[in-house]
């Protein structure tokens, strides 16, 4: 009867097929937000979660990033290679 409203409802009110992804996110946040880290600013906490996700999903590589950083700083400061 209301095709536009029906399409909008399907787009914006979609039910998630599984709660696994959200439970995994909360579990990861629980590991980051420990008693020792209770003074982290929300922005810092969010950045840590994004970095953890990037490393876990292979979007960020510590080895590649470290090598690129060393090359960058050597070029910037004309340092001798280590």
UniProtKB/TrEMBL annotation:
| Pfam assignment, any one | Dimer_Tnp_hAT
Q: Show where the HAT C-terminal dimerisation domain sits.
A: 2-53
Which stretches are transmembrane?
Answer: none
Any one GO molecular function term: protein dimerization activity
Using the record for this protein, list the coiled-coil segments as residue ranges, or answer none.
Answer: none
**Could you tell me which PANTHER family the record lists for this protein?**
BED FINGER-RELATED (PTHR23272)
Its name, as the record gives it, is: HAT C-terminal dimerisation domain-containing protein
Source species of the chain = Sphaerobolus stellatus (strain SS14)
Organism classification? Eukaryota, Fungi, Dikarya, Basidiomycota, Agaricomycotina
């Amino acid at each position: 009867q209301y095709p536009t409203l029906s399409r909008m409802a399907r787009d914006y009110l979609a039910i998630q097929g599984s709660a696994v992804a959200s439970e995994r996110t909360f579990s990861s946040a629980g590991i980051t937000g420990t008693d020792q880290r209770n003074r982290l600013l929300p922005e810092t906490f969010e950045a840590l979660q994004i970095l953890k996700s990037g490393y876990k999903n292979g979007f960020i590589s510590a080895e590649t990033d470290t090598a690129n950083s060393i090359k960058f700083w050597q070029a910037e400061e004309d340092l001798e290679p280590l």
